[in-house]
Amino acid sequence: MALQNRVTPLGEIVADPARGTLMGNRGVLHDDERRLGQSRWKHKPWIACTLLFKGRSRKPMTPGRYTELFFLDEATSLAAGHRPCAECRRADFNAFRAAWAAANEGNGLPSAVEMDAALHTARVDRWTRKQIRHERPATDLPDGVFILVNADPWLVWRGRLLRWTFGGYDATAPLPRGMATVITPAPTVAALAAGYSPGVHASAADAG
Q1: How is the chain classified by DSSP, letter by letter?
Q2: pLDDT bucket at 26, cuts 50 / 70 / 90
Q3: Whole-number mean pLDDT of the chain?
Q4: Fewer beta carbons within 10 Å, N or C terminal of the chain?
Q5: How far apart are CA 104 and CA 128, in angstroms?
Q6: Residue 163 pLDDT more than 90?
Q7: What's the whole-number mean pLDDT along residues 135-140?
């Protein structure tokens, strides 16, 4: 039976047998029976990691260890509110914070702590604990941003929309006119607009 450790662009953690291309971490969220409790995070650093790093091996949801979360691709992890890990994805982390600094008029490279604090404010409502969304003109959105279309997550990619599923992108649609409901946190949208290029699942090339 699939564990409840797959993350959607909506930030939900659900059970699905599809494998992801990145692993994430929000702290210890599961019990000794490998079941999620009520918490969906235990600290502000939400990171996205490579699946393989220095030969390390882990059994998912080992009691007392952090809960391994899995994403279809980097664009999905960014929409869910994560950022690149500074250890196993150092080059991506440095590129992300350089784009973050450029988006903020070059006010120096931010620390991981600074980015985590800003992301936490922008991704989760402190009272409802639900994902924060915002409105932007669809034609102003950079590649790698997720928007809602009829309550489903779609990726903005190369002038079109790609429909997200656990197994990959399976359909395309034109960009909508007017305003769009953006899922990806506003600080991350700014970093994408400033030049950060996220990894996307191979199915993006074949969708539709």
Answers
A1: ---EEEE-TTS-EEE-S---SEEEE-S--B-TTS-B-S-S-SSS--EEE-S-STT----TT-TTSPPPEEESSHHHHHHTT-EE-TTTTHHHHHHHHHHHHHHTTT--PPPHHHHHHHHHHHHB-TTT-PBP-EEEEGGGPPTT-EEEETTEEEEEETTEEEEEETTEEEEEEEPPSSEEEE-S-HHHHHHHHTT------GGGGT--
A2: very high
A3: 91
A4: N
A5: 28
A6: yes
A7: 95
Is 68 within 8 Å of 25 (Cβ atoms)?
A: yes
Q: Which residues pair with 131 in a beta bridge?
A: 124
Pairing type for strands 83-84 and 47-49 reads parallel
Write the CB contacts of 32 (distance below 8 Å, at least 6 apart in sequence): 63
Per-residue pLDDT tens for 42-57?
Answer: 889 999 999 875 656 6
Nearest to 196 by CA among 145, 150, 154: 145
Q: Measuring CA to CA, which residue among 80, 72, 83, 84 is closest to residue 163? A: 72
- Residue 90 structure tokens: 């150092």
Distance CA 100, CA 94 (A): 10
Q: How many Å apart are CA 45 and CA 206, to the nearest integer?
A: 33
Task: Tell me how far apart the terminal alpha carbons of the chain are, to the nearest angstrom.
Answer: 31
Q: Which residue has the tokens 């982390």?
A: 93
pLDDT score, position 208: 61
Low-confidence winner among 98-102, 128-132, 155-159 (lowest mean pLDDT) = 128-132
- Would the pTM of this model clear 0.90, i.e. be above it? yes
Please name which of 78, 206, 47 lies closest in space to residue 145, comparing C-alpha atoms.
78
